[in-house]
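Lay summary. Proteins are chains of building blocks that fold into shapes, and those shapes determine what they do. In this project we predict the shape from the chain. Here is one chain we studied, written as its sequence of building blocks.
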Amino acid sequence: HDIAELGRLVGALRPDIGLLVESRSGLTDWYVMSRYPAAVFEPSASDVVAAIARLRDLRLKIDALAPNVR
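And here is the predicted shape, written in a compact code that computers can read:
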């Protein structure tokens, strides 16, 4: 549940991808806040669009590492 920690673990094998994961560590707060309904957390539409774009970029880089299975 800690994206920064995940990035460090990934970084032991793939430093380039680990850094990309760690750079998205602010999204850990999004997850934590979603687990506690009493917490007030309302990202703006532009925050959501930016987060999706950053995650899509990370996904594309990870997908590029895998053999084409389609």
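What the prediction tells us: The chain has a mean pLDDT of 87.
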